Amino acid sequence: MRVTGFERDLMAYLPRLRRFATGLARNAADADDLCQAAVERALRSRDQWQPGTRLDSWMYRIMRNMWIDETRARGRRDALMAPEDAGATVGDRGDAAIEARVELGNVDQAMTKLPGEQREAILLVLVEGFGYREAADILDIPIGTLTSRLARGRAALMERLGEAA
Amino acid sequence: MSAIDIETLMAFVDGELDELGMARVERVIAADPELAKRVAAERALKAKLAAHYAPVLDAPLPDRLTALFDQESKVVDIATARRPRGWIVTAMAMAACLLLGLFVGRGVMPTAPGADGGALVAGGSLATALDTRLASAQPANTAIRIGLTFRAQDGAMCRTFQGRALDGIACRAGKTWQLRRTVSDPAAARTDYRQASSGVLMDAAQAMMAGDPLDAAAEKAARDGGWK
User: How far apart are CA B168 and CA B181, in angstroms?
Assistant: First the structure.
């Protein structure tokens, strides 16, 4: 049955969608709120999905647009409260676990400092593994715009996260 | 000659070049240690980001996400089933009843289709709760919570309920409880993104109501009188 197939496929994408939401929202609670809202909307508007097109791209588009709406609605409150160099307070005990934790913190910080349009491009291509064409479609921008955002985002991340990655 | 622009280099790292392009960049890299270092750094960055977000993939999904699917499969189908559209509708209505039956128990029966399509009847633990439970005396840990009891404008006795997977308004019809209103995804509706489900139901109840909701004494009297 088609309806069941739609839901089954959507459900199979949940972990990936959650990962994308985590990258966009930057904290677990917001990410799950976003994920939930996006899945609800997808289930409600399943008629708008065209069979034969990629369901995952469609879902990512819904989620990304909802996130844009959400950040606008919040007046970018989160962006204003971006944490300042949390790694600096952890100390330098040289402990591997602490280093690992700081390292992860660094990725979050570096991503947080990216402009939203670069962050979403980086997430879709480098983390979610979309091709340029699909990523550009999800973001509704020309491929050239996507690649230039990717290039700028990458350069900024490279600078902040270092080449000893 | 060996100059490769930055976008080409990224396209190479992302596997976006065609075969010829990939081969060309590989040749250039092989002859240019600086460029090879650059590519290695780009790959490492990509790997670092991937590793950073990977744990989310393996983390157990929270109930509130998986629950969306349980509820939707039931309620969306029910909504579809209410629009008469030939045999598909009949099949969907039957499927919806079966699905709803999984939630409300084994006693779900479709009544003869009326003007608004097939009606759904509460069964199982939901029917028991609607039959016996008083709003003022509910177990602390109950899966089904009774809200208001009121007399509808058509004379039927109605009760609002909140369940784990379904909220709604049920009205007495003969010896059964007909589900007049349901809210598909109560857990979801309780987030900021949506109006609270209880609000939606309260509005619906308000619109159906003749007079005021029953107070505790009247509710008890109604129960003892068989919800007439």
Answer: 5
pLDDT 10s digits, B133-152: 888 787 776 778 888 899 99
Q: Do B14 and A151 touch (CB under 8 A)?
A: no
ipTM over 0.90: no
Residues 6+ apart with CB under 8 A from A7: A43, B69, B72, B73
The Cα of A58 is separated from the nearest Cα of chain B by a number of Å equal to 18
- What's the length of chain A? 165
Which two three-digit tokens encode residue A35?
A: 């994920």
Measured between CB atoms, does A68 come within 8 Å of chain B?
A: no
Q: Do the domain assignments include residue A130?
A: no
Q: What is the CATH number of the domain that holds A58?
A: 1.10.1740.10
The reply to whether the predicted model has a pTM over 0.80 is no
Evaluate whether residue A50 is within a structural domain: yes
Q: Mention every residue, 6+ apart, whose C-beta is less than 8 A from residue A47.
A: none
- Is A163–B44 a contact, with Cβ atoms under 8 angstroms apart? yes
